[in-house]
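Quarterly update from the structural biology core.
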Amino acid sequence: MSGGYLKGRIRRDDLVSAAAAVYGEAGYHASSLREIAKRAGITHAGLLYHFPTKEALLAAVLERRDAEDAVREQLTAAAPGLDVLRRFIALAEHNVRHRGIVEVYSRLAAEAVSEDHPAHAYFARHYREARESIARSFHALAETGELRPGVDPDLAALTFIALMDGLQVQWLTTPTQVDAVGSLRLSLETLLTVPLFPK
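Predicted structure, tokenized:
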């Protein structure tokens, strides 16, 4: 790897980190590329060399979060079933130790409900893929008798993702009063005929 390439990659990483911080504080629309460049210690023109548009930088922030989550929790590597559910609980445990990225995600998710928001397509895809992953696990558990009779796997998946994101917002608002991880575990355990985490 050449020195110039490595330097450029480090600079891009610095810009993505600075953008995540600024988006978390001000939201996407209220943030500026000049402020992000200043935080990263680079000129505005230098930032535009790496990310020619504000949308391109936003995409990089969101892609980094997804890549880090997928690698850390191996969300796409597990076979559908209890292991996937456990990995989502592990993701929630990680999130409550990293408030900053949860703030960025929650703020952007709220802003992106508008179809003209540059992150709208990302969040639509993100939610669809999360629901599909959880639904596959609930369907697998239904086949093995580990999902309670009468539970609709697709509806349970939709509810779980909504609960996960809603708990994050409540936790951000009143962190000492909301046990996001415990609530998610309780919700899953009420749907199962077996322990989520055997003792």
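The domain at 54-191 is CATH 1.10.357 (Tetracycline Repressor; domain 2).
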